[in-house]
Design goal:
CATH superfamily of one domain: Protein of unknown function (DUF1491)
Shape: globular
Radius of gyration: 14 Å
Order of helices and strands: HEEEEEHEE
Largest sheet: 7 strands, mixed
Structural class: alpha/beta
Number of helices: 2
Length: 117
């Protein structure tokens, strides 16, 4: 029997609340499917760079985050272009942006590295 999964809209609402409690600026840039939409998380860092993460799972089914659009942080223009491409491909995609200059946002799962990274 598979484990019950939290609806995406509820997870997004919880992250907005966590950011509010931690005084982190947050914006829901695009709303996707409220039940099972994919989440693309943009953590805005110093010097106009962003870390883009996609909600994923490991081979054993554990929740995690996959770094996308490069092996690490990317320039703002590259992040914007990646998000635009993904939104064009996936209408159910949620895009959540968090200004996290100091790296204080608590990810709810570990970062899963791409093979070879």
């Amino acid at each position: 029997m598979s484990e019950a999964r939290l609806k995406t809209k509820i997870w997004i609402q919880a992250q907005v609340r966590i950011c509010d409690l931690n005084a982190l600026p947050v914006a829901v840039v695009h709303r996707g499917d409220p039940d099972a939409g994919t989440v693309l998380l943009r953590l805005i860092r110093a010097a106009g760079r962003s870390l883009l993460l996609r909600r994923s799972s490991s081979f054993d089914g554990a929740a995690g985050w996959m770094v996308v659009a490069g092996a690490d942080e990317v320039e703002a223009a590259a992040a914007d272009a990646y998000i635009a491409r993904e939104r064009a491909r996936d209408r159910d995609l949620w895009v959540l942006e968090i200004e996290d200059i100091a790296g204080r946002y608590p990810l709810d799962a570990p970062i899963l590295r791409k093979p070879g990274v």
